[in-house]
Amino acid sequence: MNMLTFVFVSALTFVYLAGVAPQTLYSPKYEQIDYEKILSNKRILESYVKCVTEKGPCTPEATDIKKILPEVLATSCAKCSPGLKTIVQKTITTMQDKYPDQWQLVVNKYDPKREHAKKLEAFLKA
């Protein structure tokens, strides 16, 4: 390989690596939310579902969840810390088991064509 080719390949590699930023995780604040309280009280859960589906008002905490929920569902929690992944898995499986109607409202809002369903199910089983 001649020097010009080497410099060119090196420059392309540098540009590529500079453009690929490390993936940042969601804020640790999402792990501090009392999901047990939400999941154990149907009235509270329904208020959160109304918020994230844009059918009701939002508490500040619900607004925070609403901000990341579309991406969490679309990417199967790709930016979640290990702790948050566990929380998301438990939250979704609990909703599927105990509150299937509420879960369907969320799915209908954020994945109406079920484009992410298989990947999400695999994530839940992991």
UniProtKB/TrEMBL annotation:
Protein origin, superkingdom: Eukaryota
Signal peptide: 1-22
One Pfam family, short name: OS-D
InterPro entries: A10/PebIII, OS_D_A10/PebIII_sf
The entry's keywords: Signal
PANTHER family: CHEMOSENSORY PROTEIN-RELATED, GEO07322P1
Protein known as: Chemosensory protein 1
Native source organism of the sequence: Subpsaltria yangi
Classification lineage: Eukaryota, Metazoa, Ecdysozoa, Arthropoda, Hexapoda
